[in-house]
Amino acid sequence: MPRLMDIYDLNGLTLPNRTVMAPMTRTRATEDGVPTDLMRDYYVQRADAGLIITECTQISDRARGIIRAPGIHREDQVAAWRSITSAVHDAGGRIVNQIWHPGRVSHPEIMGGADPVAPSPIPAEGSFFLPSGRVHFTVPHALGIDELPGIVEDFRRATSHAKAAGFDGVEIHAANGYLLQQFLEDKSNDRTDAYGGSIENRARLTLAVVDAAINAWDANHVGIRLSPAGAHYGIADSDRPALYDYVIRELAQRDISFIHVVRPNKASYDAGPVQIEDVAGFTRQRYAGPIIVNGGYDRDSADSVIQKGDADLVAFGVPFLANPDLVARLKTGAGYNTPDPTTFYGVGPKGYTDYPALDRVGA
Description:
About 30% of the residues lie in helices and about 15% in strands.
């Protein structure tokens, strides 16, 4: 039976093990979104992962949602990413770029004064981090139907740029309360046009983005992330089983490279009844291709979900953040470094590239 440390063939890309480094925002790019040499070092340190998925990467200047987040919409950004992918490949790794639009989860102060955009003029819940402190979300600009082809084109161009930058594929971010999930779910989408109302209409933009990305590269290099149990920024839907049944079946018809699903966490349960608890099993019933599952796994539970057949790969987040040699620790049963949450976001190497590997402990 397959296990976490077994080789896996991801659409022709040979992975030496089934661990995935989950996408994690770290805010180490420049102020104008250019990846840095420090980011290169960070990803190279973790090249033993079966697959690395980068932090969310903005697809345009209108898609700014995190301070010092990297972009992939300008040539200088593409060139900087090319340095990173080349170094990761030289270290024996494989790396996919997560392409992203935050939608309403942004603020005019980092958008050059422009309003964030969304399917409807409904603000996100919670607060937004600025250098001056936390602020409330503002009412977003509801995208006109004539503006949506531009969003699709931005994702298409980002996919083409990721290919040019030497990535091994892209992951479309349709989870965690960001723009595509805002369109999918009816608490954030009360449109009455072709992109609102019915499930088919609300899924229209996400599927158009997927089709554009496939046309820019091919289906073997385009994956997607979904959070069918997420409660991020007030995201919710009246019938998630029906919604995600439709979305996953449509993705299966496109023979997409992989579907990356996130398990419910404490915030999911705090927000109310969780409609889809076994997200991996739910996805497997509708999609026979590669499934990545994410959310609080250790080696034993990762082996279990792989052996059950509900997932092929398991993503680890904070454990990879604090342990550059996580794969070696999983293999040997060694303990983990203690993560420092105060350095999850910030600048410089502290809490980023200075966590010790096993061969440095006690040195």
